[in-house]
Write a structure and sequence with these properties.
alpha/beta, elongated, Arc Repressor Mutant, subunit A, 8 helices, five-stranded parallel sheet, Rossmann fold
Length: 226
């Protein structure tokens, strides 16, 4: 998959609204692509990853909720849902399936541009998404499949380090150096103990899948499979 760090994908089947959003976003320095049929979104995203998606819910071919769910299975691209539905339940549904923000019609195009910039700032800073895992460093908050993991500060840092680079093997000493910046004396067994507790909390949510793997004689790595 290729990526475009400055591209916004506009998924909207109302031509006038799509054109209006396009004009405001391009004048703000973004490049854009417009798609009007829901069936074309997933292939387009996989071919050329945008920096953010403006996703209308009511679309021909496939609705925005379903598209959002599918995208979250393989990507953490920021998604802003756009819809005429104003009921609170729809807002909650949208955010629970992985959307980063939610805008109701009618709206100001300037508001959309502001929301795009805000979501991109958040995405670039404090949040890590990896398949079913979401880490918010600003809040020391970890969610797995939408469930909050009750982690200590050290457990959160361990999970963040490992999940930030899936597949990379970290030695115990590397983990100690990254977590304990005051250079205190910490034994390998301390790291092993924290990992054991972290694994248990993850398995309480997903008991049939291992995320943190031991590499015999070396250390640990993060991955959904060996």
């Amino acid at each position: 998959m290729r990526s475009n760090a400055n591209k916004i994908l506009i998924v909207e089947d109302e031509p006038k609204l799509a054109s209006l959003l396009n004009d405001y976003l391009t004048s703000s320095g973004y490049t854009t692509e417009i798609i009007s049929n829901g069936l074309k979104v997933i292939p387009a995203v996989k071919d050329n990853i945008p920096s953010i998606i403006l996703l209308d819910i009511m679309l021909p071919g496939k609705d925005g909720m379903e598209i959002c769910r599918e995208i979250r299975k393989f990507s953490d691209i920021p998604i802003i849902l756009i819809t005429a539905r104003v009921e609170e339940i729809d807002r909650l549904m949208g955010l629970n399936i992985g959307a980063d923000d939610y805008i109701c019609k009618p709206f100001s195009p300037r508001e959309v541009v502001a929301r795009v910039k805000a979501v991109l700032r958040r995405a670039a800073g404090d949040t890590i998404r990896l398949e079913d895992l979401k880490l918010d460093e600003s809040k020391n908050r970890a969610e797995l499949k939408g469930q909050v993991l009750d982690l200590t500060v050290v457990e959160f840092q361990l999970l963040k380090i490992l999940a930030s680079d899936p597949g990379r093997i970290y030695t115990r000493n590397q983990l100690i150096d990254r977590i304990y910046h005051d250079h205190r004396v910490v034994s390998d067994r301390t790291i092993d103990s924290h990992i054991k507790k972290l694994r248990k909390k993850i398995m309480d949510v997903i008991p049939d899948q291992e995320f943190i793997h031991s590499v015999y004689g070396v250390g640990y790595k993060y991955g959904t499979s060996e």
